[in-house]
Amino acid sequence: MIDLEEGKKRMDIDILIAGAGVVGCVAAERAASKGYKVLIVEKRNHIAGNCYDEFFNNGVLVHKYGPHYFRTNDENLLSYLSRFTDWIPGNYIVKSFIGGRLYPFPINLTTLEEFFHLPFLSPEDAKRLLSTKRIKYDVPKNSEEFVLSRVGDELYRAFYLGYTLKQWEKHPKELDASVCGRIPVRFNRDERYVDHKYQLMPKEGYTKMFERILEHNNICVLTSTPYQKIKTTLRPKIATVYCGPLDEYFDFCFGKLSWRSLRFEFKIEKQALVQPCVQINYPNDNSYTRTVEIKHVTRQIHPETVVSYEYHVNGEEPYYPVPTSDNKIIRMYENLAKKETLQNRVYFAGRLARYKYINMDEAF
Ligand code: UDP
Question: Which residue from 102, 120, 161, 281 could staple onto 96, CB 3.0 to 4.6 Å apart?
Fold first, then answer.
């Protein structure tokens, strides 16, 4: 790593990028490949943003900021990323712990059979069953109405209500329908968490993939360098791509936006695997929301494993924009951002700078 003065000396910067996460790294690579000189500043001491993975102190690869399940339907994206990594199949299976036992989640035929103690259900039986449970809303206005209109009250209370309260510290009534609407309900026995055509994991991990994305003579990376510290001294010739929190860019002039944060506890277990699948959700038990044993996905051969316990908290580190936050403040910041783009060619990109709940493949 080089320091800031050295960074400035080494290159006449065309494009300055704040943040070495998904958007920052790909923007840097795209610009560098077109001949522009790019400097990325990153406040953390590493690249790859929240996709960052590292070896825990027992040598097991972990996702430091929560599991990142790469999935996409976009062949072009896949072929672009395949220039920087090989892949292994993404073993993205999630179960939900309810009343002392594990159920496949998202809800599928097996979940319905086990939850309602019914023998073999055909897809038609299951549809009939749910049609007796559903509560009708013409247009569901929030996540509660959305789930009730899909699966009814018992499944809503068991699988969604407690989990959503823990994740957002908000009632599903207060959250947009799209929040719980992300989760499918299946009338087959597909146990994968998501439906996407390509569900893959970079073979050597995300950090390695991002290192390769940034391996270009036109790219210079400065870690442990907050953008706020250098913004007055470094002026790029062409543009700035800002990927940090929107409110922070403007020194919180309209107040803080609401962000939901995460806290992780990693625990070593002296056996190869302890969970039956990568993720277990706890809607109604424990104070953590879910446990993740990423080794199910990385398929690392190691005699030990590491399980991470995830707590959703209101912390300093911004993870999720809260989908009910005061729209007025967001609009005010967005208007300032538009002006900043026109006047100073600062482009706001990514989850933090756009205050949007963006999936990983949409960010690339
Ligand atoms: N959710 C739920 N029960 C679960 C998992 C998710 O009620 O077991 C709800 C929760 O409100 C969450 C939303 O569904 O915010 C979307 O879940 P997803 O796993 O896609 O959220 P992510 O962790 O990826 O943001």
Answer: 281
